[in-house]
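Appendix C reproduces, verbatim, an entry submitted by the partner laboratory led by Prof. M.T., so that reviewers can inspect both the input and the predicted structure.
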Amino acid sequence: QVEFVESGGGLVQPGGSLRLSCVPSTPVYVIFDMSWYRQAPGKERELVGSIQSDGYTKYADSVRGRFTISRDSAETGMYLHMNNLEPDDTAVYYCNRGAGVPLGVWGPGTQVTVAS
């Protein structure tokens, strides 16, 4: 089954921005419902937000208004635009198929660290 690969993480100061990417590791020809998740040290993995095949998006309360999910130009991958980052956003970020329920295999994730 298709695996998605995340990239774009890094170290950013509080208030800064990052854009994460999620792309399929092999060609796909279906527009999946997709979600972003994150896992902070010592915590459970949590849902950040989702984008459905029709473009509808929804977000966790903790990121609504700061994070935006969009499709890439091929519509088989997606981005997570993160603005006004806070130290509590520090985590490994993952993407997966499904709108809120992970349906595929987990990729390697990308580390986001928010610190001054």
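Residues 7 and 39 are 15 Å apart (CA to CA). Additional entries are available on request from the coordinating office.
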